[in-house]
Amino acid sequence: EKVGSLLQMFYACFPDYLKLKFNVAAKSYGGQYAPNIVSRIMNENQALTRATEFGFSSNAVVIPLSTVMIGNGLTDPHIWFASVPD
C-alpha cells in the first residue's frame, strides 16, 4: 500500500519518468516483497484503467510496469525450509 502511494507521489513530482519502463528487481528475501509490490501495482493500474473507461478522473497515474526479476528469491519459506536438512 505504501509503495503504491510512494510511486504515485514520485510520478506526480517527476512526470517525465512516465515515459520510461518501470522494473522491479529483488534478490533472496526480496522474493517476499517483490511479488506483492508488483501485484499491487498491477491491481491499481487495472482499477485506474477501468475507472477512466467509465469516465472517472483521478490524479493517479498508471505506472509503466515492465519487468519483474527475482533472483534466488525466497518466495515460499514453507516449501524451501522443508527441504533443508536439520
From TrEMBL:
Q: State the coiled-coil residue ranges.
A: none
InterPro entries cross-referenced by the UniProt entry: AB_hydrolase_fold, Peptidase_S10
The alphabetized UniProt keywords are: Carboxypeptidase, Glycoprotein, Hydrolase, Protease
Q: Does the keyword Thylakoid apply?
A: no
In the record, biological process GO terms are:
proteolysis
Q: Which domain of life is it from?
A: Eukaryota
Q: Name one Pfam family in it.
A: Peptidase_S10
Belongs to which family? Belongs to the peptidase S10 family.
Q: What is this protein called?
A: Uncharacterized protein
